[in-house]
Fold this protein.
Amino acid sequence: MVWSQNQPGYPTIFDPGNCSLISQLLPAGPKKFLKDFMDGNAFRNPIAQVTEALQGKLGDSMSRLDNLLGQNSEFGQDLVELNNALSSINNELTAFNNHTNRLSGINLDGDGGVLPRIDEIIGVVSAYNSIKDLLKDPGELLEDNFSNAFSSLNPQIVGPFFDNFGDNMTKISTVLGVIENQLAMGGAVGLAGTVGQLSQLTDNIRNLEGNMKALMDNDNNHFAMALAFVERYALGNTILSSSLTDPCFGAKLIKNLITQPDFSKGIDDIATENGVKIEGSPINILDFVPSLK
């Protein structure tokens, strides 16, 4: 007989019947929260309603464009350009959905490990915010160094952008309706202005696509900057620690070889204040290459 794990009577190795459990150590409130959270339905993408509506409008317009292109109208090239622009921004909107699903926790795999997950983002930008506050002079106010990593989720930022997007889609629908009606009546006379509108709307859509990319880049670049800052802070603490605990090796390397002379003096001063002496002084390679002096 081949057993499957969910089969009744599945054989187990251990009998937990007489074991003491630690479940009672977690209070009822946090326990319920975590149980509900583990069901996987805790998060929402706050802009999903808008992006879904826009994708519906894009699909409708591209379908109508396909029909018009099949009629070989005199607007052929202008319609092709608009169709290409709509197809491209539709792909970008899908990428934007993936981006915001990652930022909002809907997608927890971090885009297959290529981009950071929400827990990694929160951890890094929280540390960045805290370090920036720690390094402020007394009396300076706390700044928001957190939100920029989540700007694509902020309705105050993306709301006006998507309103512009939706307005252009409405105008496109109107223009397509004019062309459809004219062609249905057997001609396209007197529609020169409509051609101009098609060209302008195509440019608008391309600009909107660029703006959408910029929104995503802003989030990702802010995270990358925060991560580099946190890593630099960690390195700074390593240097400080070496100046006090490893004066024979790490501190010598840092003081005499790899830091700027002024910075090296600061390390030496901190060590001296704590009763530690770091031998030597910053070495200048030109002292050993007199021919290049």
